[in-house]
Amino acid sequence: MYVITADQVASRHHPDRASELIDALVARHRSALVLPADQTAGDEVQLITESAPAALEIVLDATRDEHWSVGLGVGHVRTPLPDAARKASGTAFIAAREAVQAAKRADGRFALRAASAVPAEPGRRIDELDAAQVEALIRLVVLIRERRSDLGWEVADLARAGHLQKDIATMLGISAAAVSARLKAAMWRAEADALPALVRLLAGLDAGAGRAGTS
């Protein structure tokens, strides 16, 4: 399972943005959350999901405005589940706590920690699902997104919603060539092409943590 913990950057000098982040993430990911999103200690936000695609999307959404240090923990969550995320426990929460602390010092303010390594299997190297390597790849996507301009985000968000480039051009009143140029500058295709592989790697980490959690 995946636990995402986000801690507001420089919270003593800015208003509490926790409720704003929770509202935005719940609006997009409500169906994928196993418990309601929660504000825990102070201005910290916590979400739990069983979905690798949702975990990755939540991380990318939470890191987008650079107001948050975001930690992704992969591990076991004790059942039966309580009625609130802040009451839940397990190795995924320990991993998420370590990750968010590491994120405060990391490029992109993102870090990942997994509760256990995946045992070696015939035909597969043990480091294929190494958490540090998955963390590095996700961080590259986060850093690509940090460099994206407002104009780049405008077209990238529409492309993410499934609109074709010609339709985006009509919606924005610009040429199809301009849309293509903005998407290229935003490195939209590089991001989109990387996400399926990252989802598979996260799912592999979760599978390993699940085996450890039941041993």
Automatic annotation (TrEMBL):
It comes from the Bacteria. InterPro entries: Sig_transdc_resp-reg_C-effctor. This is DNA-binding protein. The lineage of its organism: Bacteria, Bacillati, Actinomycetota, Actinomycetes, Micrococcales.
